[in-house]
Design brief:
Elements (H helix, E strand, L loop, with lengths): L2 H5 L21 H12 L5 H8 L3 H13 L19 E9 L4 H9 L4 E6 L6 E7 L2 H12 L5 E8 L11
Helix pairs in contact: 3-4
Amino acid sequence: MSAEQMAGSTGGRAQLPAVGTGTDRGLDRVDRSILRLLQQDGRASIRSVAERVHVSRANAYARIARMMEDGVIRGFTARVDHERAGQGACAYVTLKIVQNSWRTVREQLLDLPGVAHIALVGGEFDVLMLVHTADNRALRELVLGSIQAIPDVLSTQTLLVFEETDRVPPA
């Protein structure tokens, strides 16, 4: 399902509510099937989704709209082959940060190029990031020049990724 299909008359942009604004209505078997289909192909049409989960188009549309309203579906994106897109270097970067600085550090990390994912975690380190850069030189500059320059970052460790595989839910 494309964002345009869900957007209707909003000028081509899906109007996604803030996470947590809907009620916690839970997901049934049909909802989970719809999610699985959309994770496999976010461009699937309402008609195709409805046929594959054996509900009417109106029912499929209402379920998808409800899951968007509830924040279960946060949006629709493209899966990118980063190497073919000119981002041949990939790494997980762990950070130790000053206690209680998570929100400030997160905002600064979000402004950096190549940051794909940021997570606050428990354990030996505080933050785990996935980054994609053009090459190892750009990766070095990102880590040593940008991330370590953030005042509340105490230390980093970089784990170079040799190969990635995205898991797509089975049909």
